[in-house]
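Record format v2
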Amino acid sequence: MTHTPSPSVTPAKRVVDELTARGQTVSVAESLTGGLVSAALVTVPGSSSVFRGGIVAYSVELKKELVGVPGEVIDAHGVVSGEVARALAEGVRRRCGTDWGIGTTGVAGPESHGGQSPGVVWLAVSGPDDEVARRYRFSGDREHVHAASVERVLYLLDGLLHASSATESD
Amino acid sequence: MTHTPSPSVTPAKRVVDELTARGQTVSVAESLTGGLVSAALVTVPGSSSVFRGGIVAYSVELKKELVGVPGEVIDAHGVVSGEVARALAEGVRRRCGTDWGIGTTGVAGPESHGGQSPGVVWLAVSGPDDEVARRYRFSGDREHVHAASVERVLYLLDGLLHASSATESD
């Protein structure tokens, strides 16, 4: 990664500001990041008008029951996969009735998880006309994997927001 | 408050260690703290065996739909109340099938919310034989109210865990 890390409040603030300007909302389903994406959004004053809520789902049961991730998707692709990240983003978006949904799954370490080694992360964003899932491979310890994942998934949403505003005159 | 604040990782680690020793689990329903309690637990290595998941429910609808807080409880007592804090803790404990549940509601500020002024916080813990809700009045900015609430609710659970282990030979 050649990217210079910046404080995660920066992408969080960019996202909150853009959603506020649009009158749109976001929700978050976190496995890997366990509440850190929600927490980054909540630290931004004014976030309560755009951030409706989120679900932290570590276990497979909660991914299915709370977020509505289909069991077949987990069985077929494994819990650390683009399909599960996307199903988390879509599921929480539907459950919370928001315009945008964020999903995170991966291995913070130090142990492997779901057949994947530490640092392997799938991040996803689901929106009105958008759906993206991207694989990352972070080095560093648990704390770094968490922080990098929070930052990246917020940049992912930020990018989609600005890409879609550029084409809204179509 | 005469209490000297310590890093919130300390009570989080105490809680994770004690739950691990007991083979028990915890889940979290956060309104006020928006994912920060979950995030504090997740930063502790080994937490994934005791922390099953959580729900961030800012809106009244999500408190009802995702956590199962009864609408009558919100109507009768207001969203910032001991009854709602307790219903969040009980609800998430039931939804996630954990031994312990944590609930937070309150006003981070700068604006008032639910008829309460900034700094007013209700924190609750629900357990196998325990139920506690406590009112706090924190001063300081949004960030301080969040951090103090995370710390206090983890100490609240820590206290109950140690209190109940002292009487388990009954």
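The beta strands of chain B are 26-30, 51-57, 100-106, 120-126, 131-137.
The first strand of chain B starts at residue 26 and ends at 30.
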